[in-house]
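Quick question: what would this complex look like in 3D?
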Amino acid sequence: MRQKRFFLTEDQIPTRWYNIQADMRNKPMALKHPVTGKEMTAEDLFPIFCEECSRQEFNQTDAWIEIPAKVREMYTYYRSTPLVRAYGLEEALDTPAHIYFKNESVSPVGSHKLNSALAQAYYCKQEGVTNVTTETGAGQWGTALSYAAKLFGLEAAVYQVKISYEQKPYRRNMMQLFGAQVTPSPSMSTRAGKDILTAMPNHQGSLGTAISEAVELARTTPNCKYTLGSVMSHVSLHQTIIGLEAELQMQMAGEYPDEIIACFGGGSNFSGIAFPFMRHTLRDGRKTRYIAVEPASCPKLTKGKFMYDYGDEAGYTPLMPMYSLGHKFRPANIHAGGLRYHGAGVIVSQLIKDGYIEAMDMDQIEVFDACTLFARAEGIIPAPESGHAIAATIRRALECKEKGESKVLLFNLTGHGMVDMVAYNQYLSGNMINLPLPE
Amino acid sequence: MRQKRFFLTEDQIPTRWYNIQADMRNKPMALKHPVTGKEMTAEDLFPIFCEECSRQEFNQTDAWIEIPAKVREMYTYYRSTPLVRAYGLEEALDTPAHIYFKNESVSPVGSHKLNSALAQAYYCKQEGVTNVTTETGAGQWGTALSYAAKLFGLEAAVYQVKISYEQKPYRRNMMQLFGAQVTPSPSMSTRAGKDILTAMPNHQGSLGTAISEAVELARTTPNCKYTLGSVMSHVSLHQTIIGLEAELQMQMAGEYPDEIIACFGGGSNFSGIAFPFMRHTLRDGRKTRYIAVEPASCPKLTKGKFMYDYGDEAGYTPLMPMYSLGHKFRPANIHAGGLRYHGAGVIVSQLIKDGYIEAMDMDQIEVFDACTLFARAEGIIPAPESGHAIAATIRRALECKEKGESKVLLFNLTGHGMVDMVAYNQYLSGNMINLPLPE
């Protein structure tokens, strides 16, 4: 019988993350201090991030970083995640393409976000931190951090984008179940929140406002560190476990991907699946297409500009050299909350600039068409974020059909959509619209 | 590093189901015709069920039944499911017991129900059936059947208990996403539904009313067969894939369970995990405890009587020799919708009568205490149904601690609770109560 899913045994799971910075010819440009504008070092991040993550952020020399034993142990709670041959989808499309996906939705919290949450919580604990804080939109990252914090005995405070807090109570409940305090942002509990709410009453919140509040809490609270789920280089580093596993699993399947496709918010899952394969491109010139898929209503890669910009609304974060729509940009309220962010991580931004990565944007209805087709063919209801990668994969698979090419496509299924059924309901009842790019 | 999860490769997955009826000294008593009271044969079920399932229902001779190749192929979409050593839970309880669970929540539809839905849909398709129908409470079985029907190109009509249809839209949306027609029961579309609604306006529905409607639809529609997710012996047969896999996986772990624990609604998951192990008890006298856990508000095993009773409200189904609270029993509205059923399957009922199985009942708050502890220790948010097995396992593990015994406990995690967050919210906010046994 043909093999559908490929797993690694626990002793085959990679023990090191891959740091692509070491192999980049053009290194990412420096971060700059938000107030002084001076180039920053790891030490400058210590007031906000734990020390080990700060050092990883600036590490441009070591290609391999040891995964701590305790983090590896917690990885075995859900890893290896399966690499799946999407026979069902191939048959539904009648395509000669070979479609594979890495199924990160099987993580306890339902998405790939846990890969970095475990690492960040572990390092915080090691350094004597007692409290962690973060922001979350739809709640995938917040759920992951809440669970990781509980595992390592840390108290977690999560600022959740207010509109999501109200519209998506399930994810909020999951964070609370894991013991986290969840506050809708903007709130009156921080100076940043007060400034926003007095200037703009009834502000519905954004990742930018929530980051500002969490960073402020970390800066003003002893033993409290900020964590985040995307954008930063150390997050991309932790996520490379995805691609490193996938590389071994593709070997088990006897194939190598011609194209690697992932949705794009700040870059965490894209980096995670793409970077380990990209080392063969950087080191040996191996030709592989890397495709980042973003929502048409938040197109930082296809329509943004490369610039120094803040990561948050209030301007508390370092200035980062990245593709951005501007830190005051307010994305339309699409269901893929995890992709509603104005900027891209600095490594990905440099790699796009250097021509290694292609970007593609996707409308919401095409995404849900793809999600529905995928659910019926493979049985897994995908998160709307992941739906962007699926939609792009379907486009590519249909092009293969037209040209009679049996390309090997690999995409990352970042999470499941079990707690996004409201969105599916809207789609199924014909009430979904494509949201425009805001002015 | 200690091993956390045990998987089978696809070629290690069992190729046959285990039919415990062949090994029972006292065979289950005959089903009787609901109107004539005469003993029934497989042929008498043909108007309602597909033929192969009808034959399996009455098969008391063949211990092993071949799993069709196409069903085995679809099993590889999610099987083997992991056997997990619950190190996190053991540490949280500080118990010398070794706790294992079989994680059926990783199935595409989030529960073990798919194991039988795939088989039933396959046999229907083979026999030229075009339409299938069924009932569902909380929606786990309905979701499984909807997905399986879509895979095999069958049209599915699901009658969902009205109160669940209204209170739990997520599961309804999942069924609709898989292309099923979902009708709240009781409805005005069947005679049974009309009779109920004219006699009792505003009836909120029960599994009993929904079964009546689905059975009526099958009986009155050409090429339409009824399917169901529990109680019947052929369903238990299909679910033995759980225990057969677990047996091989326990061998990989180098242990054998002293106690096997599962929640109990109609018996599908309990049978699935317990029967393969129980063959060693029946054949060789191996001493193992088998513990079925039911809600205190629906205690058919601990407080019901062994009797001939109908499976549904209207009395359309065969009369079955089973432990029952009476087919007019209306269970309180606990969150574990899958356990709100008045009767137990005929095989399990006979085995309880013969002393092979112990029953235990559990209050709702102890269940959610257990679910929360488990979620924080193992990262998986369990379905409230599964929470009954977890609560019983915790009780047993704490007894082991008291006595200093390192027993090996194995329980079945039937499903995840991602779409049951409303229940968790009620629990977390202190508004949950223990529901009494209705008069």
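Answer marked as accepted. Residues 290 and 356 of chain A are 7 Å apart (CA to CA).
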